[in-house]
Design goal:
Elements lengths: L1 E5 L17 E4 L8 E7 L5 E9 L5 E5 L27 H4 L3 E7 L6 E3 L12 H11 L9 E8 L18 E7 L5 E9 L3 E3 L4 E14 L8 H4 L6 E7 L5 E11 L21 E6 L9 E7 L13 E13 H7 L6 E6 L6
Antiparallel strand pairs: 1-2, 1-7, 3-4, 3-6, 4-5, 8-9, 10-12, 11-12, 12-17, 13-16, 13-18, 14-17, 15-16
Length: 354
Amino acid sequence: MKVYDVEQVSGTATQGLVKFNQNSVIRDRGLQYPPVEIWIREKGSNSFVQYGELYYDSSRQIKFRPAAYFAGKAKYSEDDNKPISATNPVSLKKDIVGFDVAGLQLKQASPYYRTAFDVAYTMDVTPTEEMQDRIGETMNRTDDYNTSFIMGAANVEGWQQGSTQKSTGRIGEYWPQVGYALTPLKISSLLYKSNGNFEDHPDKSAQSMTVYMEGVNAGNLPTSLQGPEYTKKYVLKEGAIYDLLPAGTFVDEDSLIVSAWLGGWDLVNSDKLLEKGKGKDYTVEFIEDWQDSGQTMMIIHLTIPKDKQYWHSYHNRSGWKLTYTLWNPYTNIVNRGRSVKNTLGYVNLDKDTI
């Protein structure tokens, strides 16, 4: 978002004698920049309502402020504490707005010589019945036909309000066709584990390190296919995590933190944090000399409650995360070295989850 000022030339000596061009200069952005209003129209309606506005805060970051009617209803972006950006856009999804958005207007009331802003948005295209039949027939073919993209007729135009010319190259022009990519959906089950740097504790004759682990079902589902009717069979709900600890090491059980999957590793402050204990979300057991290996197996029996079972739309996945502190005594380091390696496994125990 930009504000432009016009360079001024003053002084009676120059009046009528000196010719000059009025060059527009970008003003330093900040709180004085007029907000850009977002107006939306419900499918089937002829009128627009204000959803909110984009503005610069005191830190010169773009933020979103909802209109009174939509205030306090839901999250307006992936992370409302972060600035609005290409990776954290304002959401116009039905589950947030309350209806299907079929029209979008951006307005700005500015007292300045010139203002400008750039905008990008994602539009869902609903196939006609004829196109749905074509897609279905293509997907159901069993011969060597391998088309992955088909096109159909469209009737869409982009205009800038108040202009008699179509806004070619900015908002768009007449679109005679629309294409549909037939991309196979892919779900992968993944396990990750990493260790933090070790910390030395001479008073305890040991070293410690934080272990990070996660298990997910990750996919490539587009936004339109991330509703529960599509993702529920991939959402992890119940299972057992097996962690074969390195020989001679042990876990501080009180350091164990388990959460349903979220972006980042701030599990303690997560609203997806799970409770430990019998009859709660998870329990922990340690089995020494697992199958005569000389190592201890840590098993976490996990049940994610319904209010924390979800498909993370931005990262396209569902799962769990956990951290704990692993201790390695000096005596074990002398015998086996400082490098440690865990063997991680997960067994899904929910019959309705793939």
